[in-house]
Amino acid sequence: MADSYLTITAPSEGVVREKMSKFLSFAHPVCTADQAKEIIAAYRKEYYDARHVCWAYMLGPERKEFLSSDNGEPSGTAGKPILGQINSLGLTDVVVVVVRYFGGIKLGTSGLIVAYRQAAREALEAANIEERHAMAELTFNFPYMAMNDVMRLVKNADAKIMAQDFDNSCSMTLSTPADNAAPLRARLEDIDGVTF
Fold first, then answer.
1. Which residues contact 161 (CB under 8 A, 6 or more apart)?
2. What CA–CA distance (Å, rounded) separates 69 from 47?
3. 19: helix, coil or strand?
4. What is the band of 56 on the pLDDT scale with cuts at 50, 70, 90?
5. Quick one: average pLDDT of 15-24?
6. Whole-model pTM?
């Protein structure tokens, strides 16, 4: 698993004009494919009069979930160049939508690729890019008698309590940066009665 990754913190926009055609580009941070598809659908609805609404998204710290669409443009002339810009900046958890208003002059395959690539780049370069850490969850059980030791360790660890249940037998779920998960688990296992 990748320990850290780059994403954008807020929506951003760009615009490119090429031979009378206008390319409006929008980049949004997203966490799921469903979120990306909702944003794409919203732009399709808002720009219903546009000739093409092309897009691409990349998800997850591993950057293995991605999809793109040419939306009627010649194959490989819109979605792939948009995705290429997301890749060239090493970003993930992002969707980029490019809306094209046709200006009456055909751009040709290479012209379209350049225009979509530039439009995507404009939106992404306008965004605030930040490094984030991949998170891991640890769920464990422990006896009530170990409560003080567990809480002392959790308080000093780079971890957030996501869920907890205190009774005779207690359980807890922590969220921690992925690169911190193994050492934290080892320290928890050193406490008497902690089980995963």
1. 154, 172, 173, 174
2. 16
3. coil
4. very high
5. 88
6. 0.75
What is the residue whose two structure tokens read 């980029």? 96
**Percentage of the chain lying above the pLDDT 90 cut:** 47
Contact 96, 27 (CB under 8 A): yes
- Looking only at the bridges linking them, the beta strands covering 135-143 and 12-18 are unpaired
Residue 97: exposed, middle, or buried by beta-carbon count in 10 A (0-12, 13-18, 19+)? buried
Retrieve residue 119's tokens: 């439009």
Q: What is the pLDDT of residue 120?
A: 94
**Tens digits of per-residue pLDDT, 147-177?**
899 999 988 887 888 899 888 789 999 988 8
From residue 169, alpha-carbon distances to 145, 151, 187 in Å are 9, 15, 19
d(CA 57, CA 79): 9
Q: Are 52 and 73 in contact (CB under 8 A)?
A: yes
Structure token pair of residue 6? 């780059």
Task: Note the pLDDT tens digit of each residue in 70-115.
Answer: 888 888 888 899 999 999 998 999 999 999 898 777 888 888 889 9
The sign of the CA dihedral 75, 78, 81, 86 is negative
Q: How far apart are the C-alpha atoms of 139 and 163, rounded to whole Å? A: 9
